[in-house]
Amino acid sequence: MIPEWKLQKMIEIYDIIKDIEKGMKKKGACEKHNMPYRTFHRWEKRFQTQGKNGLLDKRAGSNPWKVTRIVRSYLVEKRKDDPSISAQEIVNKLESEGIVRISVKHANRILREENIHKNRGRVTGKKIGIYKKRTKW
Predict the structure, then answer these.
(1) Tens digits of per-residue pLDDT, 108-126?
(2) Is 0.85 surpassed by the pTM of this model?
(3) Is 109 exposed, middle or buried (0-12, 13-18, 19+ CB in 10 A)?
(4) For position 122, what pLDDT does the model report?
């Protein structure tokens, strides 16, 4: 169901378009409906390319990057079940199970917020023994 505020905005823009089709100038129609001309121009482009569906406000009303409680609990549950699992592995499981796609950085942030983030530190060549001492030429 579409919220009423989105429908009102859609109707308002459609009314401006109808006034213009009847012969009113664009700026005059925008002034009549108290809408900035630039804003209307953006909506007009959407209407021309997508039709009436383009007039529907695409904003979700909340932050699209906000992770749901279900995903957050899934991350926490997986880490508590297996503390050695990395955030990358948890994210890969989320994607393979088709739950959601989030970044590893975002997963690490959530795990830090829950105080179960395992900072592995930076692995350098010296720590794992792949660097050899340089010999003279």
Answers:
(1) 888 888 888 766 555 555 5
(2) no
(3) middle
(4) 56
DSSP code string of the chain? ---HHHHHHHHHHHHHHHHHHTT--HHHHHHHTT--HHHHHHHHHHHHHHGGGGGS----SS-TTPPPHHHHHHHHHHHHH-TT--HHHHHHHHHHTTS----HHHHHHHHHHTT---------HHHHT---PPPP-
Residue type, 113: E
108 torsion bin: left (phi>0), alpha (psi -120 to 50), beta (else): alpha
Rounded Cα–Cα distance for residues 52 and 43 (Å): 10
- Burial class from Cβ neighbours inside 10 Å (0-12, 13-18, 19+) for residue 46 reads middle
